[in-house]
């Protein structure tokens, strides 16, 4: 299959002019905290095919301080997102099945940095997955591409990445609506980028 012509990296001004990435509505963002929630989510994810995947960690502001994350792991289908706080009692078996199992293909950005954190903090080895940072390079980019740029290039949309949310306390017991939306968007947008690339034969 022939590759599409290289795409130009849009400028910040060009990205700002794009329509906003809509994201999932709050009613489609689920925080998993009960056995019933976990069973429902596992069934939905196993039936979905490839799913969006990402993690969030409480930031470290002191040089040399240990990283204790990930504190949040998120999965997304095309229509809903599932948010797991890793310290919630009873989620270990679900995370092991979803993260390590090859039945659910995880697609996301920067998975190389997620792997050691998952192993160190949770004893989990990331199973079958696709790192889209490298897949997007097949569009003609020299370097790996992050989610915000990929959404602009592949989906033609502007994705907001709030620094306030990025650097917020992801280890807190109750996540804010802004944190939930941010986490859901990361996983959901990753899946949409993957689906668009797959349609062009660029994910194999």
TrEMBL record:
Its EC number is 3.1.-.-. Keywords: Exonuclease, Hydrolase, Nuclease. SMART domains: 35EXOc. InterPro entries: 3'-5'_exonuclease_dom, Exonuclease_MUT-7-like, RNaseH-like_sf, RNaseH_sf. It comes from the Bacteria. Residues 29-202 form the 3'-5' exonuclease domain. Residues 1-20 are annotated as: Disordered. One of its GO terms (molecular function) is exonuclease activity. The keyword DNA-binding does not apply. It is an enzyme of class 3 (hydrolase). Gene3D superfamilies: Ribonuclease H-like superfamily/Ribonuclease H. PANTHER family: 3'-5' EXONUCLEASE DOMAIN-CONTAINING PROTEIN (PTHR47765), EXONUCLEASE MUT-7 HOMOLOG (PTHR47765:SF2). This is 3'-5' exonuclease. It comes from Pelomonas baiyunensis.
